[in-house]
Predict the structure.
Amino acid sequence: MDKLKIFTNGLLRENPVLVLIIGLCPVLATGSSMNDGFGMGVATTFVLVSSNLFISVLRNYIPDSLRLPIFIVIISTFVTIVDYVMHAYMVELYASLGIFIPLIVVNCIILGRAEAFAYKNSVKSSLIDGIGMGAGFTLAITALGAIRELIGNGTLTFFNRELLNLSSSLSFQPALVFIMPPGAFIVIGFMIAGVRWILKRS
């Protein structure tokens, strides 16, 4: 199987958020700012890559009848690692993301890739698939957060540093709906439509 195609599929053609439309709960809930979106994306990518790798290594030893409980145990182990590390070293981000960090364990992107790909493919292919899908997820949630933050608050923050601030301009009027739940659905809808249009054109 072409390794480059496996990687690029996750970025656009099979983007988990914008094409496969899975794992939207944490995307819509935590993608209210660029900083939070990127943080959730990186945390999810770590769990996705690690679980893909581990499941692929053990796939010949995992009984088919017990695969789902074993997948959950493996995934929850890496989620616990992420939870502890973020709690210790990224306190502000940890507080901002809240319950959605431990809920990574039930993110259907991770379990779906374990079932559909890692359990059936080589270690190298599973690793590349995890990186590609994780990168696609991170790009989507970071872009969603950046758009919502910029329109709804007039700022762009990254690693708790302010990159842009339009709120000081008298001519800028933030549309607060975009940093609220309805704004998440509006923006993600336009993003999905845009990706579908690009894929149709290509």
Observations:
- The CA atoms of residues 185 and 199 lie 21 Å apart.
